[in-house]
DNA sequence: AAGCTTTGACCTATA
DNA sequence: TTATAGGTCAAAGCT
């Protein structure tokens, strides 16, 4: 295992789709808040077997990423290519729609949770948390041991100027990521260059970048490292109608 | 030298 | 109103 790092593997075997998820996630919920940061709600996955709201399907289709909703398996299929062990991952996306009010849609939380323990090749958290393989730059700004979980949480901010996107990574004592929570959205396209040792793999065309921003597959990508109680939550504090193609709109505005 | 991580303290929200 | 928990700040050290 000389030079074949996890990253390399990802890069060479479908990382593209792998990254997409997070990108999509990050780019998906733009900070449409005009009054400061959104009020993020805690996305603690209640163990209910998901049921996806129709609207999810709608936007998922928009994003050209059926995997997010079609089925737990297809959900991770893109990554599966890279991680065979994943093929039997019984993940479930837990959509936790709030009561039927206008705000609920904005605060919907998506959780991808590994429902059963399995002997999966575990990937050290550091391999993932560094840049999350999402192409965005993340800077850790804090770590905290929270009561609700025995595992410490690491807090990351997007390093892109003016980008308020954040994510919280919960890591188990053995280094396994047990939960990832995304807050806010990237208000910028994915950087052309990422820190990853791009042996011709990390690099991606701007076109690809743009497309990735709408691909949810990474939701799983990060989780497949975990084997236990892993879950990823996405908190959109401000997802609204713009959910359709927020990035594009934003880009437009920026360009103006 | 710049950027990132670590870590304790501080601030804010909630019960 | 107070206590507790979660989240963020910022200085120091490291790569």
From TrEMBL:
Keyword Cell inner membrane annotated: no
GO cellular component, one term: nucleus
Alphabetized UniProt keyword annotations: DNA-binding, Metal-binding, Nucleus, Repeat, Transcription, Transcription regulation, Zinc
Cellular location(s): Nucleus
Domain of life: Eukaryota
Keyword field contains Transmembrane helix: no
UniProt GO MF annotations: DNA binding; metal ion binding
Family: Belongs to the WRKY group I family.
Protein name according to UniProt: WRKY domain-containing protein
Included range, full protein: 1 to 256 of 350
